[in-house]
Write a structure and sequence with these properties.
9-stranded mixed β-sheet, Glucose Oxidase, domain 1, alpha/beta, elongated, 227 residues
């Protein structure tokens, strides 16, 4: 009887042009969400744990069995510089999926951040590695290296579908996923979002107590006064 393979790997997946990824890099995640149809943010519990926070890169997706990190370690060899290691654990909270050794090796390969719906460990070491780590929390409990796992395939992290080759951006507000095919339209929409934000900030500075046209909006929606 032949044992099933521990890992299923898609090594070659479509990646967005680097110049488009670079154009997204400095945008606030809130603006990216607005330009992305007001969606794409991961669950708030996937949060920054390290001093290094801001990142933007291409998703290298990993599905890992709970309490196991064979797949995340194996994924490092398939990374390209600037990739974000995105690890799904089905939100497992009884042991870590990565620590400073894994992250140090990932950084050596050019990975720019780790995002996981699981836990990590070795926070001092993670800070020393110096790349952003977003996770649900910390646990010193260590994982095994047995599998099974998947690399380069669709995963769900923080309630959001992530495909290998999507763009992942993170800052102090959280993590947002932009589908590879939607990247150009999101970049185009960011111009409108930026202009709108500048206009709203100017209104605040001028003493406004509500958005422009808000009274008309309320009239259209309807208001029932109770006194």
């Amino acid at each position: 009887m032949i044992n099933p393979p521990a890992l299923m790997v898609r090594r070659n997946f479509l990646r967005p042009p680097q110049n488009l990824v670079d154009q997204l890099r400095e945008s606030p995640t809130g603006w990216v969400v607005d330009a992305n149809g007001r969606r794409g943010a991961l669950d708030y519990r996937v949060r920054a744990l390290t001093r290094a926070i801001r990142f933007c890169g291409v998703a290298l997706t990993v599905q890992s069995r709970p309490r196991d990190n064979l797949a995340p370690y194996a994924a490092i060899q398939y990374a390209q510089p600037g990739d974000v290691l995105v690890v799904a654990t089905d939100s497992y909270e009884e042991a870590s999926v990565a620590g400073d050794i894994l992250l140090g090796m990932a950084k050596n390969k050019g990975i720019c951040a780790l995002v996981t719906d699981g836990l990590v460990r070795d926070i001092d070491g993670l800070n020393a590695v110096g790349i952003p780590v977003f996770a649900r929390g910390l646990s010193p409990n260590s994982p095994h290296k047995d599998g099974p796992g998947k690399i380069g395939q669709p995963i769900y992290v923080g309630g959001v579908l992530v495909n290998a080759g999507d763009v992942i951006i993170g800052d102090q507000d959280g993590v947002v996923v932009v589908g590879r095919e939607a990247l150009q339209s999101v970049l185009h929409g960011l111009g409108d979002v930026s202009a709108k934000e500048a206009k709203m900030e100017a209104l605040v500075a001028q003493g406004a107590t509500g958005p422009q046209g808000f009274e008309q909006l309320l009239a259209e929606k309807g208001v029932q006064y109770l006194d």
